[in-house]
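Usage example:
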Amino acid sequence: GDSVTQMEGPVTLSEEAFLTINCTYTATGYPSLFWYVQYPGEGLQLLLKATKADDKGSNKGFEATYRKETTSFHLEKGSVQVSDSAVYFCARSGGGADGLTFGKGTHLIIQP
Amino acid sequence: DSGVTQTPKHLITATGQRVTLRCSPRSGDLSVYWYQQSLDQGLQFLIQYYNGEERAKGNILERFSAQQFPDLHSELNLSSLELGDSALYFCASTPGRSSYNEQFFGPGTRLTVL
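Running the assembly step on the lines above writes:
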């Protein structure tokens, strides 16, 4: 079935460092791709999305590009802040009626 | 605030019992999805309802069932509970029937089975 693979971490960085969280997905169909963020004790919030190949999603300084040739959707940010500390989930749509398929989540810790 | 509400926030119960989790979608959203988040399995899609009808099933156990009512709120029923059912249960809603679009998640219900 469909799957999403992402680095699990924890990933620990210093404030203002460059961030990359890798995500790859199975290539069945034409999925939409998402990054969701979960802060402690809260639900998931959409960070960004891309609906077709070569689309770039961006929000709050985060970016990810839908790469069909490498089946990847890596999350990047040029300069992280302490407030970015959270768990980040990469997800793909199931196509049609199915729910989202999530990666295992990457715990990001930003130190001042 | 996503506009999706879930009750209760926390639930503690014993093995063998039955519980009901409730979700109210955003105003105007017709689809409700249920997900389970556990340490070993991660986030898994359980079931989707669209405008009162079951639309898709994921990794939902036979002991679990759901329904969506005419006012579009949804309930997830978990019966014959086991220790392994302890998890966070999220619902999410979208306006349409497809998962290609953004889903808006509620704050979750944390279920602890003792």
